[in-house]
Structures are given as structure tokens and as C-alpha cells.
Amino acid sequence: MSHSNRSDLFLSIIARLAILALAALFAAGPGQAQTTKPRFRVIAIAEHGGIHQPFVDAAKLWLNALAAENNFAVDYIEDTDKIDDSFLSHYQLFIQLNYPPYAWKPAAAAAFVKYIEEGKGGWIGFHHATLLGEFDGYQMWPWFSNFMGGIRYKNYIATFVTGTVSVEDKNHPVMKNVPPTFVIDREEWYTYDKSPRPNVHVLATVSEDSYTPSTPIKMGGDHPVVWTNEHMKARNIYIFMGHQPDHFKNPAYTTLFKNSIFWAASQ
């Protein structure tokens, strides 16, 4: 083969490789071809260790997948050390993944209150976020208790029971495509000193008569489990259910969570 022919063959191979590379790039889609700016940013403060770690781990996997599919970003922290006004200014949504309402640094608590009261971003809290009282040597956070409807933690079902949740406000955006009733398996249902209903807008309740197996630990009737405090400028949703990682296999639960994210983030 002549030198000229070898050169032509080499150039032909290079051209084919370039075409294949371009084809692969376009097949990957625009999100892969170039870095796109996230639609919004989420900060999730996640409880670390203990009995809630499996739920938190499952939530992170689910959140990361949802973020990738919908072009938003999620960052995680495990304590309040970094939280101040400047830190929160980067985020349009704050999620408490079972992180409790105590042991917050003073600067973090002050920044969070401003974030919620002034509507600087949205908020979603899960499960442990209503562990309101005196715990681990920390005093009650009165502002957070009022944020959650003026409640105080009273008791919990340590043995876990399955319960049926009923949607109360089917027209609220976070309940879109959520069935009127759905079952939550093996949850650690809390009871409070009173219902938050007079101070919040209740979106769903659990039927204590549906508890399986039955338990004497009950609120005694009205037991809200999803609500929003409309007295705050921030769009906010509290979702009590948040103990079992298997909740992320429940389409009703994941639909509620997904809807809450986009609503609270004003998307």
C-alpha cells in the first residue's frame, strides 16, 4: 500500500470515529451534552445514624434520582453548623429528613425562622421534625412548636403498626394523583398533646381505628398526619410518615413527596 493510500485510510478512520463520537454525544441527550443550570436547589438536613438511618438512606436515593430526572439539585448536611442567612440564600427548598427540632445552633435557628417567616424558600418536614418537647437535655423550641400548630410530642407506637391515611383536601396541589385513601405499613405513629388542626390546614389524617395490630396508644379521634401552616409566608408541608425505607415503594407516598417538592419550591 502506498504512503498516499495509507494516509487516506487513516483519515477515513479518524472521520468515522469522529462521527461515532458525535452520534454518541447527541444520543446521550442535551443534559449530557452540556451542563445545564438546575431549575432550583434543595438543601436537605438528614438525621445521621440511629433507627431512622434506613429511611434517610432510601430518601437520598429516591431524591437523587428525582433530581436527575427533573433537573434540580440536592445538597445534604447532617447538622446545622453551616446554616445562616447566606447559606440558605442558595436554596429554594429546605427539607428536614427526620432531623429533630432541637440542638440547632443559635445562628442556624435564627436564619431558619427568617427563611420561613419571610418566605425566602419552601419547607418540607418529615416524621422526627415534630419531636417537640424536652429531649437529650435540650429545651422545647417554642417557635417550632407554633410552626407545627402549637403541638407537643406525647407518645409513639414503638411496636409499629399499619394504618390507613385519608386525604382530607383532595384539591390541594400536593394531593394531585394521590388516592383518597392509602395504606402506610409499619409506621411509628406519634401522638401529640392536642390536634394541630385549629392552627394549620390539615391535608390528610390517619384512621386510628385502622391500626393493625390494634394499640391503645392513640390521639383519641382527630389525628392529622399531613398539614401546612398557612400563617407562614413560606410554602410548607409536614408529612408525618417517615420511618420505614419501604415507604419509597409506595406510589401514594412517593407521589405525595414529589408533589410537595415542586409545590413547596414554587415550581
Layout of helices and strands:
Layout: H1 3-27, H2 30-33, E1 41-46, H3 53-70, E2 73-77, H4 85-88, E3 93-97, H5 106-117, E4 122-126, H6 142-147, E5 153-156, E6 161-167, E7 181-187, E8 190-192, E9 201-212, E10 224-228, E11 236-239, H7 251-264
Parallel strand pairs: 1-2, 1-3, 3-4, 4-11
Antiparallel strand pairs: 5-8, 6-7, 6-9, 9-10, 10-11
| SS-based class | alpha/beta
Terminal-residue CA separation: 64 Å
Counting copies of identical and different chains, the oligomeric state is single chain
Low-pLDDT runs: 1-34
Query: Counting H and I runs of at least 4 residues, what is the number of helices?
Result: 7
Query: Would you count the extended β strands for me?
Result: 11
Specify Rg, calculated over alpha carbons.
24 Å
Question: What string, H for helix and E for strand, traces the elements in order?
Answer: HHEHEHEHEHEEEEEEEH
Characterize the main sheet: 9 strands, mixed
